[in-house]
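Hey team,

Filing this mostly as a record. A colleague (T.K.) asked me to run one chain through the structure pipeline before their review meeting, and I want the input and output archived in the tracker in case anyone asks later how it was produced. No errors, nothing strange. Just documentation.

Input sequence:
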Amino acid sequence: MTVPMAGVRAPSTDRPASSDPTTAILVWSRLRRRGYLQGGAVLTAINVAVQVLLAVIGSGHMLAATTSVLAASAVFAYLVVQFGHIRDAPAVDALLGTQPWRPVDVRIVRGPVGLWTRSVVEVGDVRFEASGPSPAHLAVLARSGTAWLIGPDARGRAAMRIEGSHEAWPARVRLGSVKPGRLPVVGANVDRLWATWLAAWPRLSRRGLVGLLNAGEWSKVTASVAPWQAWHNNRANAIATIHTADGRVLTLDMRGAPVDLLGTIWDTGSLWVVGDPAPDKTVAVGYPGYPLVTEATISEAAHV
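Output structure:
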């Protein structure tokens, strides 16, 4: 099956980056997650300390106390790792509010390694460690060889935007040597790579997005999306109205759709659907060639 390349809008370079409403929502979500992670880490650390104290003074069962400590320690480690991705969120927010994006040529030096999933990219003779881009985003970056950058500030903090996404990925100037890591494959099927990555997170992919991508060919439709409310995890429930080439008007019920994808519908006034859109079907929708794909259930549009 031939995968077409959807047209997506490049960011504006003549105004502060946070003037883009989708980017502003994504930054807001990251700041919210930062607060949640900080609070969770503190509460988990307190729990570990209490369990250790109880074990030392002999209260309760030693096995139960040890198990609780190990479980809480694992949760604490996870929270610390996640916080590491967004520790610079306030600084990045400040940069986005005052500076525009500037286009740059980028070379990927190292893909994600270990729990931190940080990648190293090279812009000119400066290397940046970027936090957060998925393997699918890096595949787009490898394909295009270009990105948009803001910063760095006096402490080496910056933000990077990749083609097809509104995300402002936090980045830091990287000094010293870089350990080798896996590089993205140029020409990889980004749609499938994105769906496979989501499949590792059951809450993000409940219906088998990989299988839906194999259900037919992509076709473009005009689309508009009704107002929606973003969650702190950069997702939202949303209803879109689409007009097919043969004149049908249908609605798409997208549960937990990425904010990035919803923002692109607003940008372009279009959407792509896999297979023949028909009522009561669940289909893959999004923008082929980019990590902007989700699932939607189709129904007849009311009052048409």
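Quick notes for T.K.: The mean pLDDT is 81. The helical segments are 21-57, 62-86, 89-96, 135-144, 190-199, 209-213, 259-268.
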